[in-house]
Amino acid sequence: MDTKVEHTKNEIVMDEEANREGSSFRSEDDDFHYSDEEKRLVRKISWTLLPLIWCIVFVQFVDKSIMSVAAVTGLFEDTHINKSQYSWASSVIYLGYLVYQVPNNILIQRLPHAKYLGVLIFLWGVVVAATCVVDSFQQLMGVRFLLGLFEAGTNPILYIILNALYRRSEQSSVFGFILISSGSGSSIGAAIGYGIVQTLDYKNGWRAWRWSYLIFGICTTVLGVIVFFLLIDTPTSKLLRLTETEQAIVKKRTEDNKVIKSKTIKKEQIWEAFKEARFWCLNLAVLFNAMENGGMLSYAVILVQGLGFNSQEAILLNIPSGMASVLFICIAIYLARRSNQTIYTSIGMTGVSLIGLIVLMANESNGGKLAGYYLTWALTAAQAMMITIIGNNVSGYTKKVTYNSGLVVFNTLGNFIGPLVMANSFMVGLIVYIVGSVISAILLLYIRWNMLHINNQRKDQRLGEKTDPSLDYTDRQDVNFVYRL
Q: Domain Major facilitator superfamily (MFS) profile: where (predicted)?
């Protein structure tokens, strides 16, 4: 009996030590050790980079989600589509995402990120603007597919830029910022959509949805030009105007995040990623999360309208959903930093979203259903933490690109499937999302156990000196690498 107790105590100690090393934000590279110079550098990077990233993610979200507003402002009548065709038009954008992933993986390692992304944004802006003149299901499918094709490179590029510019301990905040940008896009986009309905509906014979596409399309093309010239895409970008002291700090930060761009595609790193169980578990968790996101996003206004509100009220009532998303992400970031538990935080946010789904399905009052609908948007906070898992726990440039691309592919598949399961019955869709949330939580638990197990195995293997990041070792090859849980 005493032996068992002692063995249990040892396991607990190992788990606590692994948390301190692999998950705690209080390590030797964390912010309370930062020099004043490094704090100023981080502020310089953030104020130069993050406002532009907010604009990119904002227009990306709005350009995809205009469909939801268009659905109650004349799209069905003007394009002569039915509910099933609407589901396909909502989903086909993600087919474009999938088709472009392989060429994107090659181009992302060969081209300057800012120039490449600027061109993609300009092209998708042209497609959004062109959507204002479609008048059939076939034309709508075509522009939606092209929109997905040109948007597909955005997230992998942003992820790798943030991986390179921020320490691992900072990445839950910056990846959370991406999802906050998305959530604010929901609220602000709904407010702008309401304003367009109020002022431009039937203007010059055009319904409000056509004006929405034209206005946002023009704004997006302008943003593409700005990104081409002004986006920071490396830690040593000339746009940062680094001093000699800051250059030395950048070198130390690179030793922490272990991201040095390489134009060489290392097949062995791709194969290593594919052989890892956590790669597939994380991607499946992302898939189930994205299914719910895709369904809720595509049917957001229609779903709220079905609770007894008119089209304009339904648009307005979607403003709080974006605010709820932002609030949940902020809570998740706070909890992750305070508890040092990114994966548990992701599971907790998945649980909140699950509760929302159950309330939305089972509650009989419209007010209760609306509250449940708002709770479901905790899914964005769960997704932010899933992205952080990759940033914190994958090294090797090609391997990190592979993980990020896998996340985008499975996120795309989920968003493609999500609206389709809602097409015939909201109830069926909600049940599918509930089951998916449970499976997602189980998969995340396995990922945490797997990385904790490796941390424990490496305790006696670690070398006294830090690994040179220029060697481009993967997290499996580098015995000094500590997984953050």
A: 49-452
